[in-house]
Amino acid sequence: MKYKRVLLKLSGESLMGDQQYGIDAKILDQYAKDIKTVTDKGVEVAIVIGGGNIFRGVQGVAGGIVDRAQGDYMGMLATVINSMALQGALERVGIKTRLLSAIKMEQICEPFIRRRAMRHLEKGRVVIFGAGTGNPYFTTDSAASLRAVEIQADLVLKGTRVDGIYTADPEKDKTATRYENITFSEVYEKGLNVMDLTAITLCQENNLPIVVFDMNKEGNFLRVCNGETVGTLVH
Questions:
Q1: Rounded to an integer, what distance in angstroms lies between the CA atom of residue 76 and that of residue 135?
Q2: Predicted model pTM
Q3: pLDDT single digits (tens) 126-182
Q4: CA nearest 87: which of 45, 143, 127, 141?
């Protein structure tokens, strides 16, 4: 395999499948099986998952429920729910896992400690990072980039519902074309919606490449980890 240690970023929305909200068991099972094909090859896998299928801080603010910081904390708790669901799915297919949270929740997961996370990976466990960075005003994209840098991952893999980065939104613009690879500078200049700018900057400053790919297509995760051209490489 080309990569030894990768960080997989999943959106909360990807867990919905065809539903309007919540978690689709079929999608979870597919992800778990795809992740197992990669761990069986000896690749160390860490995962960060969003919470948009349950709650988004910006929605809470827009709806007048809470202020931004409070909304973001609610979103972090949503990521822990998703992380626990994914952990269960992974363990059903025989993968040993550890859930580490940026917010202390001793009854259900370990606190995030960098050296402990790296030790779990070395022992072949899939490590799921919950609760984002533990701070409001930061997205789970930023959390993914931060954790990837901290654990010295070779690559950030952003698993989405589209097969890469396009010149425009392919669901709205039929003339949009896909980039096979693109530089960090071009992402800035073209204003492409890959990850938020904090996440992109962290990866750029630490020479950490990103691959954006379609996680819902079976086998894609393995192909990316094997170095095949899948999705869009940002470097």
A1: 9
A2: 0.95
A3: 999 999 999 999 999 999 999 999 999 999 999 988 889 998 888 788 888 999 999
A4: 127
